[in-house]
Write a structure and sequence with these properties.
- By secondary structure, this protein is an alpha/beta fold.
- It is built from 22 helices and 16 strands.
- The strands form 4 sheets. Strands 4-5-15-10-11-14 form a 6-stranded mixed β-sheet, with helices on both faces.
- Helix 17 (376-390) crosses helix 18 (396-412).
- The longest helix has 20 residues, at 229-248.
- The protein binds pyridoxal-5'-phosphate (PLP).
- Residues 108-110, 143, 226, 263-269, 318-319, 397, 423-424 line the site of pyridoxal-5'-phosphate.
- The site of pyridoxal-5'-phosphate has 17 residues, from helix 12.
Length: 497
């Protein structure tokens, strides 16, 4: 299908081309020209045939690729997942299911999209006949970086460089990135926060001199961040799959509404749920759960998006974000696809750091979205209580979704069944999880993992234990204004290979 830029209705591309470009030349994000409509009966059948079948079905609604290619992409993407269901559901009680998205190679939900993206890119290179290879620049708040490198490592005709905030990721996240193998990967720490890294990457995409240098080296830029259309669509699949599975096991009846509670940072994950709803999935409320960086809570409450605020480092670092990129795609739908209006808001955001939604639109968005946040203490409490009550261990990001779901139910009395989105394995954050469960503190992440395993009788995933002995291959760190020369250095390296 065709996609258009959120900032210019005239800027149109094929979905395959959009995956290769990552972001529109005007700085906008690519969105589908229209939402295909979901045939729920077909979706139930596909889901029963397996996650890969359903995923290929959803991808095929957006990408003009043949059936065999689609199945190959889906099967390849989820081959390394440790659970045969890919996205297993864990019932806490009759109306709450944990939707576990962390069984991929890097133990975070990012794998669902980032194992599919390189395969989609390969198919897009073949389909469009693009001659240049693809150079991916990506900012990460912790999990994207590792998942993107794991997806792209040694994939022909691609190279990837990742920038992460030096003091803004967990010890395990940092080690996961520093030990990544592959001739076509590079990792660089930035002395700043995630927004600095993300802004730096966006500026480099717009830097003409750099673009020329990249082209001369035989590459074109793309992104593996959730602004890439190719990340969004694979994420739609797990919302449809979860719905179908809950119908199959009798938790809901076909056609009943289902709520989703999503721990949110860059608004990519929850936006995929919104897209599923636009396609016809019976969604009740989308609960947007934030940590202390509650810019989205305030936005849904007051209609004002204001990034001028204190930045908090929390135990859910992948949500420590003040500029939530994918919100732009929601704004586009809200104002009935008025790209001029979106441009005004985005210009206000970059000039003044804020913009305001008119009251009628704020009322409109609140029909679908409910937003709240939780403090660090709330997060610890959720981990402790859910473990004590259900013997179920959650990572801090997931805990935010569960805590905010509780707040939602108390505030509204809405008892609709809900899937809470579980985005990371708790062993990615062993110190905070251990402290939350039983008050033990240790400075060493591996010690914490060991203690956590002993206390909770759960096992440490091999991807975590192996980090202890894997050689560190990357230790490059730069100031904010050093990102450009880091890319130039990487280009030199690629040219020599
Ligand atoms: C990226 C991430 C999030 C936030 O997802 P967005 O799509 O950025 O809203 C939540 N939890 C974990 C573990 C993540 O890695």
């Amino acid at each position: 299908m065709q996609v258009v830029s959120t900032r210019d209705a005239e800027c149109r591309r094929s979905a395959e081309q959009a995956v290769l470009e990552g972001i529109a030349p005007d700085g906008g994000l690519f969105v589908p020209e229209l939402f295909p409509s979901l045939d729920l009966t077909a979706a139930y059948n596909k889901a029963n045939a397996g996650y890969q079948q359903l995923c290929a079905y959803i991808l095929g609604m957006y990408f003009d690729l043949d059936g065999q290619t689609l199945i190959r992409i889906a099967e390849g993407a989820y081959a390394e997942f440790s659970d045969p269901h890919v996205v297993p559901l864990h019932k806490l009680d009759g109306r709450t299911a944990m939707m576990e998205l962390y069984h991929g190679p890097t133990l975070a939900f990012k794998d669902l999209a980032l194992q599919a993206l390189p395969r989609l890119m390969k198919a897009a290179l073949a389909k469009t006949g693009q001659k240049e290879n693809v150079l991916i620049l990506t900012a990460t708040s912790g999990d994207t970086g590792k998942a993107a490198m794991a997806g792209f490592a040694d994939v022909e005709r691609t190279a990837i460089q990742v920038f992460y905030p030096e003091y803004g990721v967990s010890a395990m996240q940092k080690l996961q990135m520093a030990t990544q193998e592959g001739v076509n990967v590079a990792v660089c720490a930035v002395n700043g926060n995630f927004d600095d890294a993300q802004t730096g990457v966006k500026q480099m995409f717009e830097d003409r001199t750099l673009r020329d240098a990249v082209r001369k080296a035989g590459y074109s830029f793309s992104s593996a961040n959730s602004i890439n259309f190719g990340r969004l669509i694979p994420q739609v699949a797990y919302y449809v799959y979860t719905y179908a599975k809950l119908v199959a096991d009798g938790t809901i009846k076909a056609g009943d509404k289902l709520n989703f509670s999503v721990p949110t940072g860059n608004f990519g994950n929850i936006l995929a749920a919104y897209y599923a709803m636009k396609m016809g999935l019976p969604v009740g409320k989308l609960i947007c759960a934030s940590n202390s960086n509650n810019v989205l809570t305030e936005f849904f409450e007051s209609g004002v998006y204001d990034k001028n605020r204190t930045f908090f480092k929390t135990m859910s670092p992948s949500m420590d974000i003040l500029i939530s990129s994918n919100l732009e795609r929601l704004l586009f739908e809200l104002c009935e696809r008025d790209s001029k209006q979106v441009r005004v808001w985005m210009d206000d955001l970059s000039d003044k750091g804020s913009y305001r939604l008119p009251d009628p639109l704020r009322e409109e968005v609140r029909k679908t979205f409910y937003a709240d946040f939780c403090t660090e203490e709330d997060t610890r409490e959720a981990i402790r209580n859910i473990y004590a009550q259900y013997d179920y261990l959650m990572d801090p990001h997931t805990a935010v979704a569960v805590q905010v779901l509780g707040k939602y139910r108390r505030a509204t009395g809405d008892d609709t069944p809900c899937a809470a989105v579980s985005t990371a394995n708790p062993y990615k954050f062993p110190q905070d999880v251990l402290f939350s469960v039983n008050g033990e503190r240790t400075d060493d992440a591996f010690n914490a993992a060991q203690r956590l395993s002993e206390c909770t009788h759960t096992s440490i995933p091999p991807q975590i234990s192996e980090l202890k002995t894997k050689p560190v291959l990357h230790n490059h760190a730069v100031e904010k204004d050093g990102m450009l020369s880091a890319v130039q250095g990487f280009l030199d390296r690629l040219r020599k290979e």
